Amino acid sequence: MTIPRVALATGSLHLPGKHFVLDHSLELTDRVETKLFTYAARGTDYPSLDMRELFAPMKVPYDLRRRLYPIGSRSLGRSILRWNPDIIHLHFMALGGFAARASKSGRVPLITTVHALEPHLMNTPRTQRDRNLRQQCLEVLEATTLFLPVSEYIRQWLISLGVPKTSIAVNYLGIDTEFWQPRRAPDRIEGNPHLLFVGNLTELKGIRELIDVSVDLLEGVPHTLDVVGDGPLRDYVDAMARKHPHIKVHGLCSRERVRNLMHHSHVFALPTHTHNGISEAASFVLMEAQSMGLATVCFQVGGTAEMMADPSLLVKEGDTNALTEVLLELLTLDEAALRLLGKAARDWIVQNRSLRAGARSTLGHYRSAVASDAHDAS
To answer: In whole angstroms, what is the distance from residue 277 CA to residue 212 CA?
Structure first.
């Protein structure tokens, strides 16, 4: 069988945060020839594919390079077509105009993975930059042959825009369950149980709510709240940690450090909720925590329910009383009960949300697109 030649496209690539853009292609290196095309990239935490980074020669910060897309769109699109791909696979509709125009100009099938940001840009553009990005989203909507939403939640949003159901296939982006794998027996830190949060320190991720719940629980259930991440609310989190010493702030951590913290933790919580019109479309960290054998709790919002093995650990969005009750129950479970919950969660993730399964699904879509394009050409 002919190996598909796939131009992987994304407006910008900030690793490790957007590792999922590369992970499935790296998993398919023996079955797909891939080259990455982007305006700007940052980070070296992951092995790189063959890459064309348009603004790499410019000695300016990443945040500035990725904002120069209006002057580089044609050039990046031409680079894609010179490589002569069978398929263009775009991640993120925003900043994706170059891929849409290359697809139309070169008559190359465009597959677009749709993430959480797009509904916000399409529904509630607030600034001129938002409106410019919305226009690029519209170009992508028009040019795309097949949409791969990362959850059923995003699929329903695409349908609401009028995208035909036959042009949409939910494609869950799996995680590396071999990397996110607990040791034979969790080596819990002795003493108080550990509650873990990993995520951007923003209103969206619900760190304020989690800290409030943790403080309320502290008197009845002594515990440690480990907070991993950085962002606009870092000063707030640091101030609360000074006021409440059971809160330990770790800042940004490597994947290995996060894995180690998960291995020593008892419960993982991510009370992400809708903020400024944005909801979580899918959450890798929810899957990673469960793959590590952690009892995992989150609000039921956006696509989070689709990433959870145990529906009983989903809490109604914004219901902090219910969140408190669930965390109280979990933090007071004995080790044997926690291990049973964790094993069930990991088994479900391995079966349903593994990187291997996600890559296999993606490869199937590639092969179908190539076969369909060959049939249309004939």
So the answer is: 23
